[in-house]
Specification:
Layout: E1 22-25, H1 41-51, E2 64-69, E3 75-76, E4 83-84, H2 87-94, E5 101-102, E6 109-110, H3 113-122, H4 142-150, E7 154-159, E8 162-165, E9 171-172, H5 175-185, E10 204-207, H6 223-232, E11 246-249, E12 257-258, E13 265-266, H7 269-278, E14 283-284, E15 291-292, H8 295-302, E16 310-311, E17 318-319, H9 322-332, E18 338-339, E19 348-349, H10 352-362, E20 372-373, E21 380-381, H11 384-393, E22 405-406, E23 413-414, H12 417-427
Parallel strand pairs: 1-2, 10-11
Antiparallel strand pairs: 2-3, 3-4, 5-6, 7-8, 7-10, 8-9, 12-13, 14-15, 16-17, 18-19, 20-21, 22-23
Length: 431
């Protein structure tokens, strides 16, 4: 470029750009007017305006995508000071600082208005009838990355009752052991690796016990104070129009489960997590009023029919909302909770002991291993069908109502289609 195109017409560079940013190499950036070396594009534009009185429009995009190669052959991002050995990794990263256009339907962000229009023209986005509260929308995980990078919040995921490390296979039930593991093994972890593949668009769980700012090392009491501290005291680019992307928990020593956002306390972690999500529910179903953290979760919810989708487990009644079903259970099934599934009329009993007595006396059924006993020879079976088959084959004791499958070639009848087919194949081969 220096030898062959020193006096080239740079107006040709803008041919067919269609609003996209121009990639520029600023490895040896300097001002042509005064030959002063400049670090980045922002410093160059301020230099033009202050030292040379050039009419720079600071409220408009500069229109360039800066690439800077260091002497050790690593690519440097001049906006966040990250370095990359591979060019393709740096290329993917640098564009994240210029994603200023987003699709209103699917939330995808783009580097230029032209790219957004091409997306809207070629891609059929899923259009929703719901708008997020306060006009906020789910954006890339920029806020979550800043919080993890600048604080002592430790990311984790859960499986059953275990706390799992998102970087390795270590799992434990003790939050203190988990924090010691993170401090010793993953002190300088890669923030991008914290967002594991199965997380999808869900929020990342973080433990904010003993929360500190990594930039000034002061202790911070709660999550909201951390966000305000990073944004106001350290001028971190936390976007107020985007969600934080993390679910904060104060796990402490695991003996108590208190909400990190309010004063509520719960008996287990799953109850605490369900409650914590209610503080970040940005999308609400207009039909039933149920809240969701992400747009994708709400879309999946809307695909389920809302008319009478809640069934009563003790009768055939159906309800349109969960509150209606709970009210029905509390008012209609308070005294007779236990039902006999073997009787035709499905009688109900007030206590489990009364139903157990009924099962033993009427159906000869008792809890345990071999619960079904033959009334003639006292042989026990693990299932009721096994007992009936035994009585039908050995003792020829069969209720007339159970002989529903009659052979068309003789007078024999059977309890199932399988036995009838076996009989026909054995006795009536010609038929």
């Amino acid at each position: 470029m220096a030898s062959d195109h020193a006096n080239a017409d740079f107006g040709k560079v803008f041919c067919r750009m269609k609003g996209n940013l121009i990639k520029v190499d600023i490895s040896d950036l300097e001002c042509k007017i005064c030959c002063r070396s400049i670090r980045d594009v922002d410093t160059l534009m301020r230099h033009f305006a202050q030292d040379h009185d050039l009419p720079v429009k600071f409220n408009a995009c500069y229109g360039v995508l800066p690439y800077k190669l260091l002497k050790d052959n690593k690519w440097l991002c001049v906006y966040c000071a990250k370095t990359y050995a591979a060019f393709i990794d740096f290329k993917r990263h640098i564009t994240t600082h210029f994603m200023n256009y987003n699709c209103d339907k699917c939330g995808t962000t783009f580097i230029s208005c032209h790219a957004l229009r091409e997306h809207q023209r070629q891609v059929k986005c899923h259009r929703i009838a719901y708008k997020p509260r306060n006009g906020r929308a789910m954006r890339p995980r920029s806020n979550a990355e800043i919080i993890l990078q600048c604080s002592s919040a430790y990311p984790f995921r859960t499986w059953m009752s275990n706390l799992n490390c998102v970087f390795c296979r270590v799992k434990t039930r003790d939050p203190v052991v988990f924090r010691n593991h993170m401090a010793s093994q993953h002190e300088a972890y890669d923030v991008q690796a914290a967002f594991y593949k199965k997380l999808g668009k869900a929020f990342l769980n973080v433990d904010i016990t003993n929360l500190q700012c990594k930039l000034c090392f002061i202790s911070i009491d709660n999550f909201e104070d951390l966000v305000g501290h990073l944004k106001n005291d350290h001028q971190q680019p936390i976007r107020s129009d985007a969600q934080f992307g993390v679910l904060p928990f104060k796990l402490n020593d695991g003996s108590t489960w208190k909400c990190a956002m309010c004063t509520n306390q719960f008996k287990d972690f799953m109850s605490l997590k369900k409650h914590t999500q209610s503080h970040f529910q940005n999308y609400v179903c207009d039909t039933c009023g149920e809240g969701f953290i992400t747009e994708s979760a709400m879309i999946a919810h809307t695909k389920i029919p809302h008319e009478n989708r809640y069934n009563c487990g003790r009768c055939v009644a159906t309800f349109s909302t969960l509150d209606e079903r709970n009210s029905h259970v509390k008012t209609q099934h308070t005294s007779t909770r236990y039902v006999c599934v073997y009787c035709v009329d499905k009688p109900r009993f007030a206590t489990w002991e009364i139903r157990k007595k009924h099962l033993l006396e009427v159906h000869n059924y008792g809890t345990g291993g071999d619960s079904y006993e033959c009334t003639i020879c006292q042989k026990a079976f693990k299932s009721r069908s096994g007992k009936y088959n035994h009585m039908a084959r050995i003792h020829r004791v069969i209720k007339d109502s159970e002989l529903s499958y009659t052979c068309g070639s003789c007078s024999r009848a059977f309890t199932s289609q399988l036995f009838l087919d076996k009989h026909i194949a054995k006795k009536h081969t010609d038929a």
